[in-house]
Amino acid sequence: MKIYNGVSMQDKNILCLLDFDEADFKLFLNRAVDLKKEFKAGKKNSTLSGKTLGLIFDKPSTRTRISFEAAMIQLGGMPTFISSTDTQISRAEPVADTMRVLNKYIDALAIRTYSQKFISEFAEYADIPVINALTDLYHPCQVLSDIMTVIEKKGSYENLKIAWVGDGNNVANSWINAAASLDFELCLGCPKQHFPNSDILENALSKRKKQSKRENIFVTKDPFEAVSNADVIYTDVWASMGVENEGEKRKKEFAAFQVNSKLIACAKKNVIVMHCLPAHRGEEISENVLEGRHSVVWDQAENKMHMHKAILDILIDR
């Protein structure tokens, strides 16, 4: 167990936000806010001088890769990008062997891959922090930075209604995991055949019940019901990486789930609209909403870097 500023982290890794309690969320959120303030004030920070972050990416990335690299550099450390196709993993070297060597070379490892099982296997043999930079099942760092953006724009996440509109994908799953510990209402509006993973929903609801907290996660097939009186509307692409071949089919299934002016008119007047990007303008979100006064997507994208700085600052021993 690692103690940081009086708060205990139950695990040195970030694999899934269901592992977090409220104190863990606040630890990362508060540190990210502080680091962003320092950055805007021009304060240099070299807390990770001499440290190295490894990045193993099986999937394409713009924001996640660059924000992790920039975060490490701004903290005085060095990122090293590792394409798994260029490693012995691609030639069937066991993950256990690879990880036990990486323990000797680097100070933290961020992995963007397909299988949650794959990243969990790395964590099993790791002496260093392992960070989930996206799997098909979860995207925890994205949602941590998203919650930071909500706090920045709304003052707090507490007692807000956050509406998810679209595919019940990995980002939606991480929002569900966050809602298991945090006191906001999450309403997910998805086509019936694209509801979030039922096991993930059940586990989140079970965790809240054990904490004696009110039920706050709801799923509907009506996007207008989902956004009714919402403080935040969040959407993502309809066909995530790995299911691009379903693009045309999904355009028909999701036709009523576009975040456009008609939909956001059902939310609060000061609603903010979020998208983790890349956006398919004219599909899951209209051009005028993405570029309109409710959109906070560019600040949201910037906050990935500040949250990644907080994650690295907290998890890597200094």
Structure, described:
The chain contains twelve helices and eleven strands. The chain has 318 residues and is of the alpha/beta class. It has two domains: 2-138 and 302-315, Aspartate/ornithine carbamoyltransferase (Rossmann fold, 3-Layer(aba) Sandwich), CATH 3.40.50.1370; 143-297, Aspartate/ornithine carbamoyltransferase (Rossmann fold, 3-Layer(aba) Sandwich), CATH 3.40.50. The strands form three sheets. It has a five-stranded parallel sheet with strand order 9-8-7-10-11. Strands 4-3-5-6 form a four-stranded parallel sheet, sandwiched between helices. The longest helix is centred in the first third of the chain and has 19 residues, at 22-40. The protein is globular and about 55 Å long. It starts with a strand and ends with a helix. Residues 1-8 have low confidence and may be disordered.
Low-confidence stretches: 1-8
Question: What would you call the shape?
Answer: globular
Number of domains: 2
Number of strand segments: 11
> SSE string, helix = H, strand = E?
EEHEHEHEHEHEHEHEHEHHEHH
What is the rounded distance between the termini? 15 Å
CATH architecture of the largest domain: 3-Layer(aba) Sandwich
Helical element count? 12
Helicity, as a percent range: 40-55%
User: What is the CATH C-level name of the largest domain?
Assistant: Alpha Beta
- Class by SSE composition: alpha/beta
Please state roughly what percent of the residues sit in beta strands, choosing from under 5%, 5-15%, 15-25%, 25-35%, 35-45% or over 45%: 15-25%
Query: In the CATH scheme, what's the topology name of the largest domain?
Result: Rossmann fold
Largest sheet: 5 strands, parallel
What strand order characterises the main sheet? 9-8-7-10-11
